[in-house]
Amino acid sequence: MKKIATLLIGLIILSVANAQTDSIVNAIIKTDSIVNVILKTDTIKVWKKGGLGALNFSQSSFTNWAAGGENALSATALLNVFANYKKDKNTWDNTLDLAYGLLQSSHSAVRKNEDKIDFSSKYGRYAFLEHWYYTALVNFKTQFDNGYNYPDDSTVISHFMAPAYVLVALGMDYKTIDNSFSVFISPLTSKTTIVNNQRLADAGAFGVEKARYDSVAGIYVMVEHGNMVRTEFGGYLKMTFKKDIAKNVNFSTKLELFSNYLDRPENIDVNWEILIGMKVNNFLTASISTQMIYDHDIPVPVVRDVNGVQTPGAGPRLQFKEVLAIGISYKF
Fold it and tell me: 91 - beta bridge partners?
């Protein structure tokens, strides 16, 4: 009898212990699941990341075409990525735009028709009225490859870091909750132009101070190299807008204005980009893009009529580019 009682008590103790162990294990599993859900929810809420990669093509071919024409083929690779952070009163928006394209025609060598590196980082702290933020912005622009003044393909007129533009600005940013529209206004902006090529700097390319020459025994000699860096201080405005204007049709635009307080502030630098993207299916797209640039400090090669003679020269001009393309894209 004593042995039976002892056995029953042992079984009861073992059952209770097993039940407690199962409860502890289940509690740990539930706690771990709750923590994972919280962390996942917080990550999704705080960071929004994504991007778009595209490869666009255009081609023209003429055979016995009476009106004339030139066979041509071009390809352009595009990459746009973003990582935006938003938590409590803080926002941090980061974008990187990369583009590179090549063009081959029947009567000329391969040349580039697109070349861009554009990185922007903008931090904001909530100020007032729901949409206004105290903001600091950093922007960097340059290109990948050498540029030439075609048809002259032997003299380099630009390349990586020549030029490069670094802009640092402090101001106020107005933006909608979904970040589709933003206007950044900065009365305190530093714009630095870098020309990492002494030959181009000596020529005063892209607005830097050119080399100084003096006459020695009737011969002009360089007495001081051109500056490879130019710093400007002024006011800056950046506006961005992006919206679906129809089914599978997206419109986006970016306008940047800069005025140098220290040198002819009435000459405003302008950079205005427009992109209309049309989605055919999950991968096939068509797009039309334009870019307009005006910078009074950047001389553009021009040909002037001087007393009936076509004379080459240079001066500030409105620059305009338009691209119509069909290609494949992947959104992530």
Answer: 86, 124
Name the percent of the chain in helix, strand, coil, to the closest 5: 15, 60, 25
Looking at the structure of the chain, the number of domains it has is 1
CB atoms within 10 A of CB 142: 20
Q: CA 274 to CA 290: how far, in whole Å?
A: 5
pTM higher than 0.85, yes or no?
Answer: no
Q: Determine the Cα–Cα distance for residues 211 and 90; give it in Å rounded to an integer.
A: 46
Q: Which tens digit of pLDDT belongs to each residue from 285-294? A: 999 999 999 9
pLDDT score recorded for residue 58: 85
With tokens 């800056």, the residue in question is 236
Can you give the residue range of the structural domain that contains 95? Answer: 2-331
Across 212-226, b (16+ Cβ under 10 Å) vs e yields eeeeeeeeeeeeeeb
Supply 221's token pair: 């000699």
Handedness of CA 159, 94, 52, 36 (dihedral sign): positive
Residue 53: both structure tokens together = 């990669």
